[in-house]
Amino acid sequence: MLASEPTRPDRDPLDAALTWLSNGHKVALATVVRTWGSAPRQAGSQMAVRDDGDFAGSVSGGCIEGAVIEAAQDVMNTNVPRKLDFGVSDADAWAVGLACGGRIEVFVEAVR
């Protein structure tokens, strides 16, 4: 994917990550590690995030991608992986669109 191409959530995240790394970008990989209730994506779903905020893949079908991209940029800058937890019991759940009753746990790590 060239820098001028638009974000394609349907693009394979691992292919995108390898391409971006070979082009000199920092990359983080977000993986759904656990879900409860009505979650939009199953465990194992992945999203690659490039240092400029471009991404490929999806961890929630759009509900929490913005928050995950923000966390991924922090992970790329600090090299410290993070576990993110989104659910209806959290105040943030409504803000990110998880009003459907689901809960998602996402692990974000830098890729080298």
Describe this structure in words.
- 27% of the residues lie in helices and 29% in strands.
- It is globular and about 40 Å long.
- The mean pLDDT is 84.
- With 112 residues, the chain is an alpha+beta fold.
- The protein has a five-stranded antiparallel β-sheet with strand order 3-2-1-5-4, sandwiched between helices.
What form results from the Cα inertia axes?
globular
Estimated radius of gyration: 13 Å
- Tally of DSSP β-strands: 5
Number of domain units: 1
Poorly predicted segments:
none
Structural class estimated from helices and strands: alpha+beta
In short:
With 112 residues, the protein is α+β, with helices and mostly antiparallel strands.
Key structural traits:
alpha+beta; 112 residues; 27% helix; 5-stranded antiparallel β-sheet; single chain; globular; 3 helices
Outline the fold blueprint.
Elements: H1 13-22, E1 27-36, E2 46-50, E3 55-57, H2 65-78, E4 82-87, H3 91-96, E5 103-111
Antiparallel strand pairs: 1-2, 1-5, 2-3, 4-5
